[in-house]
Specification:
Oligomer: single chain
Strand content: 25-35%
Number of helices: 10
Shape: elongated
Structural class: alpha/beta
Bound molecules: adenosine-5'-triphosphate, magnesium ion
Largest sheet: 6 strands, mixed
Radius of gyration: 24 Å
Length: 344
């Protein structure tokens, strides 16, 4: 592995030769992967991630996210297709491409019998960072990860959240320009998770492009500017987070009702009203529909609404509509043209 002595993550981004904007941090074209057991994990995936972006890769279990990340980080061999990292082709210039990447894999994979400081310094050494530089960086990264007081402890004794933070700290030791995280906050409580979001935002603000997979849709909504949703080895939707959420044309509400609901519910034209129990109504209505109309109908039927809440996280709604067997049914069945939003 060649040396990586780059001091900062925010190295100048080369401009595309055709003048069509900066070279993507990651460019994947028609990527296919069939494992030895003949599982087709990727069936022609193409996507671009802009430099500086914070990008989410979402998808249900077994969708192909880790396979995609494995290929990009050279842990899994591709069956067909092309991967470029900041314009560097993975097939022809693997070592150069790998020097640009920091990977936080889905499974914890450090030696539990080593100390955090040694894990970081040895990892950097493996990538050619001189020891004196590595020691300085390790202190910096362990402090950022709030693990400095654990630097000399056996890693096995760290809590689950601390181990996850150690994985991020380790990946940052080579000062990668592209940080890829496969479910970095899995199984981590909400407080620690929010702390990790802060760290990731700081890393991104300092110029590192970030791609993450997550099952916490709230996490993607809070952190990421662009996203791709992958299902059964295919991208079913991609684009700026805001544009995708704006496409959701149905909203869901739950109404808590005073007293008991009548046996027959009123009908509201264009919307679907159902009772989830004696005291709760479930409403699905088009986005542009006026809620006053709903309240008028309910009022006439003698139903008094005590409180209301939105039914679900909007990204969750989008996700459910697009993945598994719902893909063809919802109003979001078509792909948004992939035009990644330029990040600030
Ligand atoms: N080494 C392997 N050998 C054979 N099949 C594999 C291998 N790794 C993954 N697969 C299969 O490829 C498909 C995609 O798996 P992958 O791990 O990429 O999904 P994922 O989106 O990361 O899922 P999760 O959210 O559960 O982590 C699955 O059907 C899985 O069983
Ligand atoms: Mg996975």
């Amino acid at each position: 592995m060649t040396q990586n002595l780059a001091g900062t993550a925010a190295a100048a981004t080369p401009a595309a030769a055709d003048g069509a904007g900066p070279v993507p941090a990651l460019s994947v074209r028609d990527l296919r992967k069939t494992y030895d057991n003949r599982v087709e994990a990727l069936k022609g995936v193409s996507l671009d991630v802009a430099p500086g972006d914070f990008f989410a890769l979402l998808g249900p279990n077994g969708a192909g996210k880790s396979t995609l990340i494995g290929i990009v980080s050279s842990l899994v061999n591709l069956s067909a297709g092309q991967v470029r990292i900041f314009g560097t082709d993975l097939a022809t210039r693997r070592d150069d491409a790998m020097r640009l990447i920091g990977l936080v894999p889905q499974e914890l994979n450090f030696n539990m019998f080593e100390k955090p400081l040694d894990i970081l310094v040895n990892y950097a050494g493996f990538y050619g960072v001189p020891r004196s530089v590595a020691i300085e960086r390790a202190e910096e990264e362990l402090k950022r990860a709030q693990l400095w007081d654990k630097a000399g402890m056996m890693s096995r004794t760290l809590s689950g959240g601390m181990k996850r933070r150690l994985m991020i700290a380790r990946a940052m030791m080579t000062r990668p320009q592209l940080l890829i995280l496969d479910e970095p906050t899995a199984g981590v409580d909400i407080e620690i998770r929010r702390g990790m979001w802060k760290t990731l935002r700081e890393i991104n603000a300092a110029g590192t492009t970030i791609i993450l997979t997550t099952h916490y849709l709230e996490e993607a909504e809070s952190l990421c500017r662009n996203l791709a949703i992958i299902d059964h080895g295919r991208i079913v939707e991609q684009g700026p987070m805001k544009a995708l959420l704006a496409k959701l044309d149905v909203e869901g509400f739950l109404f808590d009702i005073d007293g008991v609901l009548p046996a027959t519910l009123p009908t509201i034209e264009g919307a679907t009203l159902s009772a989830t129990d004696d005291h709760t109504l479930d409403l699905e209505m088009p986005r542009e529909m006026d809620l006053n109309r709903v309240f008028a109908v309910l009022g006439q039927a003698g139903i008094r609404v005590r409180s209301m809440r939105t039914k679900s996280n909007r990204l969750e709604e989008l996700f459910v509509r697009l993945t598994s067997d719902n893909a063809d049914k919802g109003p979001l069945g078509n792909s948004v043209p992939a035009q990644p939003e330029q990040s600030a």
